[in-house]
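name: query_chain
kind: protein
chains: 1
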Amino acid sequence: MKSKAAIWPALLLACLLGMHQGLAQDTAELDDPELQRVPPFQVFDNLYYVGARWVSAWLLETDQGLILFDALYGDLVDIAIDGIRELGFDPDDIRYLIVSHAHYDHIGGARRFQQEFGAVVLMTEADWQLSEGEPDFRDYPRPMRHLSLGNGDTLNLGRTRLQFLQTPGHTLGVLSTIFTVYDGGYPHTAVMFGGAGLNFAGADRLQMYIDSVGRLLSIPDVEVNVSNHPDSSDVFARYEMLQERRDGDPHPFVDPESWTAWLELMRRNAQTMLDAETTAN
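structure:
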């Protein structure tokens, strides 16, 4: 199997850019469902990728229904819906849609999941408010207000338990989630950092981001980075490694060292931006 070290050049490049993934690319390419479609795939016993090429959506299977992380947007929403069905699941079994933050690429499909499948949308109060005001970047169908989550809140669905942190910076209400994934029944602690992009400015926001990353680094025993943009953790390169995995090989998504190194790098980038702003003022 390929070394995990082989994935680092792309990961480091994505981090060093310090941008919201894909915003510098051709918008038409990002919005094209044919160019963005990737086959859905299983990563752990209970976790599946149903996202697009540039922005993620993840499906968590529980014994009492499905949990979807992020909703894609526009014509890309069909990628997630089709992927759920291709994997043998029914979108009507989605109990909760967890929105990592209220930017169009993550929340844009939420209203459709509410209307067509009855999913209950969960988001922080700060980002519910963001979704009700002037949109960042571009507009999207506004979801009906459902439930708010904050620091220390939990969600239980059957035997599955999720814990939540509000990690502001990218937006004021970025929602990060801690949960357990299983590899052949063996548990691993996974975290989705709900907003890692550094495409914003302002000393207060940058300090929020730095503090948020510090809180994520303090979570013990994190082994899996479930990123909401695939480039942030080289999802597709790791999946290629997973397909080549042999008995006894480690799981390529179980990589605590890269989780820590990625967060430390993002924190340094944010500190560099903050120092530059402080000097300029």
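note: The chain has one domain: 4-280.
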